[in-house]
Amino acid sequence: MAVVLFFSSSDYFKAIKKSSEGAFDGAVLAMLGEGGSSGEPKEGSFSGKTGSPPAEEGETSIELKSPAFENGQFIPPTFTADGKNINPALIIGNVPQEIKSFALIVEDADAPGGPFVHWVVFDIPVVGQINENSVPGKQGINDFGTTNYMGPDPPPGTEHGYFFKIYALDTMLDLQEGISKAQLENAMQGHILVEVVLMGLYKR
């Protein structure tokens, strides 16, 4: 059985923000070394963009990359509110057969009021790539009040971290479009086989 470690939001974001050049797992391990886990291990698995340890026998692990930016590096303006405001391509590797669909949540971890949702997508077919400037599945509502991708749009002078989180599920959720992030998370409970995160930065 695969294992995922769930942390409080603040510790989770701090761990990811420590990463550079794909050192997601190292950041998580460093946080654990600081006494950081906020709960018991639960089903699933985290896998960073690069540098993840090999999965043990019986574990489920996938890989998430983007041709547009490296994990922990800056997102090109094309994919932000300062450019075309289109989603970057995402490449999903090592997808096991038991996965039936994907969900995707994109968040700004450094928004003043807490994580700010930029994109909610679900019932994504099992594919190896989400194409640039695409609508890969049903869309939920973001914190801008729209149901489409909205790119990084931070205040001037501040560096924000943007988290592209893929959830691999054991079912198609078959929900209506326009649901919130909270509704999606509630519907995914008990169906997440693995979660993988890609983090990009943006600053004006």
Brief description of this entry?
With 204 residues, the protein is α+β, with helices and mostly antiparallel strands. It is 13% helix and 27% strand. Strands 1, 3, 5, 6, 8, 9 and 10 form a seven-stranded mixed sheet that branches. The protein has a three-stranded antiparallel sheet with strand order 2-4-7, with no helix packed on it.
Low-pLDDT runs of 5+ residues are: 1-16, 18-57
Order of helices and strands: HHEEEEEEEEEHE
Characterize the quaternary organization of these chains: single chain
* Helix percentage: 10-25%
The average pLDDT score comes to 80
Number of strands: 10
- N→C terminal distance: 43 Å
User: Strand count, sense and closure of the main sheet?
Assistant: 7 strands, mixed
Q: Pairing-aware structural class of the strands and helices?
A: alpha+beta
Our Rg estimate from Cα atoms comes to 16 Å
Number of helices: 3
What amount of the residues lies in strands? 25-35%
The dominant shape is globular
